[in-house]
Amino acid sequence: MSKIKWTGDPVHSQIQFTVRHMVISKIRGEFEQWEAFAETDGENMETAEITFQATTASVNTGSEARDNDLRSDKGLFQSEKFPYLHFKSTSFAKKDEENYVLKGDLTIRDVTRPIELAVAHGGIITDPYGMRRAGFSVTGKLNRKDYGMTYNQLIETGGAVVGETINIDIHIEFTKQPE
């Protein structure tokens, strides 16, 4: 069976996250610059080897001041020192017709840790232009402090301005690359 290379389509994908803000609400953010690649045996997604890289300076939460704080030396990403976050899969196991478990190593700043993500596979189609596409929704959680992102400011009630749990919410389309 021949290997198929797939590339993440940034026009039809969103790489987003949410985090608690001052205990009472959630803030959504996204990475605007990223690359994702997969390689499969034929179109068998269980054989997928997946890599992902996001540019930390491309974080966008809808507030320029907050985004600059996140990128800064005092912020969570320290983008000048750590310009990218990386993911490399270690397994992609099918649970049922639509659901998979994606395991891999996530590197943020200079810390690499294993992570497990839930994946819903929307299917593979041929679009109106003859291109093969595969769609996925990916969810998971991580503790930012596990990756050395320890910024913490407390509010008067004792809760943190920025929560420790980061919820991952990715919707991605991959396109099959020509052989």
pLDDT averaged over residues: 88
* Oligomeric state, counting identical vs distinct chains: single chain
Gap between N and C termini:
13 Å
What is the ordering of alpha helices and beta strands?
A: EEEEEEHEEEEE
DSSP summary: helix tally: 1
Per-chain topology:
Elements: E1 3-8, E2 14-21, E3 25-31, E4 34-41, E5 44-55, E6 59-60, H1 64-71, E7 84-94, E8 99-108, E9 111-126, E10 132-143, E11 162-176
Antiparallel strand pairs: 1-4, 1-11, 2-3, 2-11, 3-6, 4-5, 5-7, 7-8, 8-9, 9-10, 10-11
Written account of the structure:
The chain is mainly β and 179 residues long. The chain has a single domain (3-176), classed as Lipocalin (Beta Barrel), CATH 2.40.128. The chain is built from one helix and eleven strands. It has one helix at residues 64-71, and strands spanning 3-8, 14-21, 25-31, 34-41, 44-55, 59-60, 84-94, 99-108, 111-126, 132-143, 162-176. Strands 1-4-5-7-8-9-10-11 form an eight-stranded antiparallel barrel. It is elongated, with a radius of gyration of 17 Å. It starts with a strand and ends with a strand.
List keywords for this structure.
mainly beta, 179 residues, Lipocalin, eight-stranded antiparallel beta barrel, elongated, single chain, 1 helix
Summarize the structure.
The chain has 179 residues and is mostly beta strands. It is built from 1 helix and 11 strands. It has a single domain, classed as Lipid/polyisoprenoid-binding, YceI-like (Lipocalin), CATH 2.40.128.110.
